[in-house]
Design goal:
Length: 269
């Protein structure tokens, strides 16, 4: 039985992914601050199972303890999905720097802490895959969601560097960049209205963004893409979730950046 470790697996894309892997016969260890449901501690689905382990990705000690607990129950980790994260929104000028730092701490440094915790095991077993949840916002930066976009762009760059460092150990690294997905992530966003009397487009931009998310793809679509990345013979460094978002990212590669960024601004003004 293959083993998956996934952070942020208690809701949204992470929960759908944990369930899909378990249904397909994987042993899943779901790392989050709290379990997604009362019965998810060692919950058996299909031929696989989901075991919840409490983990706070903002704590190096918590990440190491969680992986140590996983390794008490299994001797191999086949795939790690770093999925824990949240979003903040608001004008850059008026964003409290403590909020910006926490955004980077959870989304980016949380991924770094989990990576450092699992790499010794993956190196020892000479193989495994690490997959990061990034975002299309890493490529097409969203106004008034700047720190979220920056945290995901950091993950993209980090993953590319890591891939070259660990290739000799048989470890493969990928990022999955979802477009708009309908989950509780939208309602959980930490929204700041500071400065909206100055930045007149801020309220409309955030409302537009949240409308697109609520009308977005289902989490299971991203879960299926994660499964493909985890099981395909030769995973690519980067994947985009959703056909229309793949088109957008392709256009970003071939069109002048000034023009693409102007269009992006018009979409949220």
């Amino acid at each position: 039985m293959q083993t998956l470790v996934i952070s942020g697996g208690s809701s949204g894309i992470g929960k759908a992914t944990a369930s899909l892997f378990a249904e397909r016969g994987w042993r899943v260890f779901e790392l989050s601050r709290r379990s997604g449901a009362p019965d998810r501690a060692d919950n058996h689905l299909g031929q696989g199972s989901i075991t919840h382990i409490t983990c706070d990705v903002t704590s190096e000690e918590s990440c190491k303890k969680a992986i140590a607990e996983v390794l008490k129950q299994t001797d191999r980790i086949d795939v790690v999905i770093s999925n824990a994260g949240y979003g903040i929104s608001g004008a850059i000028e008026f964003t409290d720097l403590k909020d910006a730092e926490r955004q980077m701490d959870v989304n980016f440094m949380g991924a770094v802490r989990l990576t450092q915790a699992v790499l010794p095991q993956l190196r020892q077993q000479r193989g495994g895959r690490i997959i990061y949840t990034s975002s299309v916002a890493a490529i097409l930066a969203v106004p008034y969601q700047s720190f979220y976009s920056a945290s995901k762009a950091a993950i993209n760059t980090f993953a590319l560097a890591l891939a070259n460092e660990v290739r000799e150990f048989g470890i493969r690294v990928s990022v999955m960049m979802p477009g708009d997905v309908s989950t509780g992530f939208t309602d959980a966003r930490d929204k700041s209205t500071a400065g909206e009397e100055v930045y007149s487009h801020a309220h409309k931009a955030i409302a537009t963004m949240e409308h697109d998310e609520r009308d977005g793809m289902k989490p299971i679509q991203m879960a299926k893409l994660f499964y493909h990345i985890a099981t395909c013979r030769s995973p690519r460094p980067q994947y985009v979730g959703g056909f229309q978002y793949r088109v957008f990212c392709f256009l970003d590669c071939i069109l002048p950046k000034r023009f693409v960024n102007w269009i992006e601004g018009k979409m949220y003004s």
